[in-house]
Amino acid sequence: MAFVYTPYALPMLIAALITAVVASYIWPRRHVPGAKPLLLIAVFIAVWSLGYAFEIMSPTLPQKIWWGKVQYLGIALTPYLWLWFAFVYSGQTKPRPWLITLLYWLALFPITTILLVFTNEWHGLVWAEIRLVTLNNGLTQLSIEYGLWFWAHFVTSYLFLLFGTVALLRGMWTKKGVYRSQLVALMVAIFAPWLSNILFFTNLSPIPGLDLTPFAFTITVIALAWSLFSYQLINIAPIARDLIIEEMREGVLVINHEGRIVDINRAAAHFVGLPDMQAVGKEALDVLAPWPDLLEKWQEGQEARGEITAGQQQYTFQIAPLIDASQQSLGHIITTRVRGTAVPAEPVITPTTTSFTPAPPQAAEPTKPTKTAIWQPLLDFFVPPMLADMAPLVGNSVILSQMLERAFTAMLRVAVGLVFVTLI
User: Fold this and answer.
1) pLDDT tops 70 at residue 83
2) What is the C-alpha to C-alpha distance for residues 100 and 28, in angstroms, rounded to an integer?
3) Strand partners for 251
4) HEC sequence for 309-342
5) Is 213 among the domain residues?
6) Distance between CA 70 and CA 50 in Å, rounded?
7) Which of 269, 291, 379, 410 is the 20 to 30 A CA-CA neighbour of 77?
8) For 323-329, which contacts have Cβ atoms below 8 Å and span 24 or more sequence positions?
């Protein structure tokens, strides 16, 4: 096949490359709840973007039709996979196991669409008539009159997107801290393709004749990557988090492998003397500074137990590492439990025991958002915390992951630049 390069294809090629990198990152973590549909979304967005790039660069009608058919692997499956991911990740399938059966049956819609697309010459149910036209801007494209099944596909796809969006919106308002930030990023990810697709079908696209939906999925991937690399979205899934963690009497504090607090329940927030929303995202070194013994044991990186005093309360604590299925470290979880009330007494020092009571931490006063706080998520996106300083690593898989993350960050910056240049 011969291709004629055009600048209109470049954003699609970059989108395909970015989503392929995201898929390679998710692959080792595919056993985590929600990771499999997320992996398939990345793969089929890459197929969609690549197919559209080749369609744009194809000079003949048969070539364009073929690549148009290839695109439907992504066009038909992406909305369905989004619904699947939304239900699983937000925990909808746990109390409603019948949703799994429903999802299996709903897969018939995208599968039927794909089969009808590749056999369209026999029935014309998807494309009733196809012509090749050249626009004033020099873009050669397909002019299509759609058949009956296309509109059935159109309606079901938007229903999939709608119900998936609603599921995540419901989850967003019931999650706390970092998980709510993750779900907000996912909402940005889905609204960009919604908007671009509507602009295309209403002939309001800023580039006449060009379907910006695959291009908009570049924004989807960027928002998704921000969740993945800044907060490790699929490594610690928040399913049923509020039902279990938040209501526990024991304090639960989750620290990622960079030393940042990524989750904390009410009991632990009371223990450290910070509101939970203020504690999330802070360095554990700063938050745990009043308790050197706890801090030292956490820095050792192994399982540990101990006792500490905060204010008038005595606590026992336990530290456990978090390891994923591929034996990569995700961080640590610290649990605290009230043991009793501290009784003032003279410190007793023996050759093997040292009693130390740190000053109780002062509860932080609520502060008004500053400009730095407002812009911090944007700064974290361009320079994700995970990509700060690389410590000496031994495992090849870890090194490869770091290399992919750094390459991906560079591609994100290029993609963002292309977004603004193209729209301007």
Assistant:
1) yes
2) 24
3) 336
4) EECCEEEEEEEEEEECCCCCEEEEEEEEEEEEEC
5) yes
6) 9
7) 410
8) 324/29, 324/32, 324/235, 325/29, 325/31, 325/32, 326/28, 326/29, 326/397, 328/28, 328/395, 328/397, 328/398, 328/401, 329/257, 329/301
pTM of the full structure = 0.60
Q: Are 230 and 249 in the same domain? A: no
In a domain, residue 407? The reply is no
- Do 180 and 283 lie in one domain? The reply is no
Domain count of the fold of the chain = 2
CATH of residue 347's domain is 3.30.450.20
Closest CA to 127 of 61, 182, 82: 61
Name 260's Cβ contacts closer than 8 Å, sequence gap at least 6. 281, 282, 283, 284, 385
Query: How far apart (Å, rounded) are the C-alpha atoms in residues 422 and 50?
Result: 18
For residues 376, 377, 379 and 382, what is the CA-based torsion angle, rounded to 10 degrees?
Answer: 170
* Cα end-to-end distance, the chain, whole Å: 33
Identify the domain containing residue 252 by its residue range: 245-370
**Host H or E run for residue 144:** strand 140-146
Q: Which tokens hold the place of 309?
A: 């005093």
